[in-house]
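haha ok so turns out i had the wrong file open the whole time. this is the CORRECT one, sorry everyone. sequence first:
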Amino acid sequence: GGLPLAAGLALADQLQHRPRVTACFFGDGAVAEGAFHETLNLAALWRLPVLFVCENNLYAMGTALARSHSETNRALKAAAYRIPSWEVDGMDVEAVEHAARAACEAIRAGQGPHFLECRTYRFRSHSMFDPELYRERAEVEEWKARCPIVTYEATLRARGMLDDPLRADLESRATQEVDDAVAFAESGTWEPVETLTRHVVSEAGGDR
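then structure:
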């Protein structure tokens, strides 16, 4: 559902001449939906400033990619709409950053939508009701060894850019930020029932 919305936001920015890029994230399973193809087609035709980011973790809920798609290369499908499309190691922090930066620069330069296929993996089950009978535990552990947080920490330490005191400080600040956000949310008020239908339809007429 987020794909058409992203196109709409990008179209609004284009019409208002705002130098923005709409980033749309979705999983590999979404590529099987009609909305994916319809959105990419219009985005390409209208040269919308949107970056499509497919997080390909090899499983759409519990279905392996090869069992539901004759073409498992997501970037190749996007390229069929004449959208510049790149495959990137989604477990490599810097590779993703470089690819995203290059794509956004091209989009802002008026080159239309771009597509990134981030090859990644989901360590946990899709939901609390997912028994994970579709993959072996050894496969999960193999991918865990490539965890981007762990591997990037090792990279930063090797470069002399991270040590134990700095890591502890960063972790403490991150924990505090999350705790503050949770406290703010929990202390908030419920949305009034009277406003539940607001923005469901246009209010331009004044009497809706």
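The CA atoms of residues 18 and 37 lie 26 Å apart.
again sry for the mixup
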